[in-house]
Amino acid sequence: MRQTSQISVTIGISSCLLGRRVRYDGGHKREPLITDHLDRMVNWVPICPEMEMGLGTPREPMRLVAGEAGGSPRLITNQRQRDVTSGMERFIKDQLKTLQRAPVDGYIFKKKSPSCGVAGIPLYALGEDEPVGETSGLFAAAFMKRFPYVPVIEEDTLRLPEQRSVFLQQVAGVARWHAFLKEEPSHHRELGRFHSTNKWILLSHSFHHYAELERIAADAEDGRRLFQEALKAYESVYLKTIRIPTTPCKHADVLTHLAGYLKHDLNLQDKEELFNSIAGYRQGELPWSVPAALLRHHFRRHAHPLADEQTYLQPLPIEWWVRSFV
């Protein structure tokens, strides 16, 4: 079966969530789920905007203040009312350039941070103590605008199994695409190979979108589209596809299709065991790993070229982890 071990997953993260003492009070916000579980499966890109713009720690806490005439929020210190927005903007400009050159596959942001919060950050009027609205942290907002296809999440949402599953499977999809682009593809055959090897993963997200990707790849192969044009079109639809959540029902359909490749190879007892395991997964009685392990076992004994090239049964470590629970 196709190996995916050479594909690494890189996730940007607010440094404090890894236990680094970068908070305004000299502390951290270590998240055990991240450091105890995800740490062994992910390459981290830790970033603390306040520290990296030179504010140090401990430091005066800050808040976001509404800009004049509806302008962008300003980052203001609480006590001295010092405006440090320009320093944050310089950091953001430089950091986004760095992330453009070395992209991340996802980002875990610190909730409630005026620089890193994804949403729900209190917005104040200058000199007032009661919020007048809500906004996003300055760095998080700029990141999401520059990289709209990169999945983002806050640490409290990451604790929710269903949301964690969606996020990490999206991250894995982006990682595969980034790995493909690093190979500098220049021919339609390379795009066709990427499409065919990821067929069942894409189908677990959306049959409709898979069919659209199939048309784009076929148009490139038949010469109806120039390669670079087809690559751009494929990327756009692919990144939309992996943002559509998978479900146990969709995965069970994929597992059933894969089992169909073995219909002439298995005896009645093995067939019954395999299809019962898929039914058990569909009904929530078994984890994905049970029917997947059976399929991997049978395909080792009865090799099939269409199944052998697929990445679906060779998931990245984070995919294997989340599919074992959801």
TrEMBL record:
Top-level lineage group: Bacteria
InterPro entries: 2-thiour_desulf, DUF1722
Domain DUF1722, residue spans: 199-317
Secretion signal, residue range per the UniProt entry: none
Pfam families, A to Z: 2-thiour_desulf (PF04463), DUF1722 (PF08349)
Alphabetized PROSITE patterns for the sequence: PROKAR_LIPOPROTEIN
Protein name, entry field: DUF1722 domain-containing protein
Naturally occurring in which organism (per UniProt): Marinithermofilum abyssi
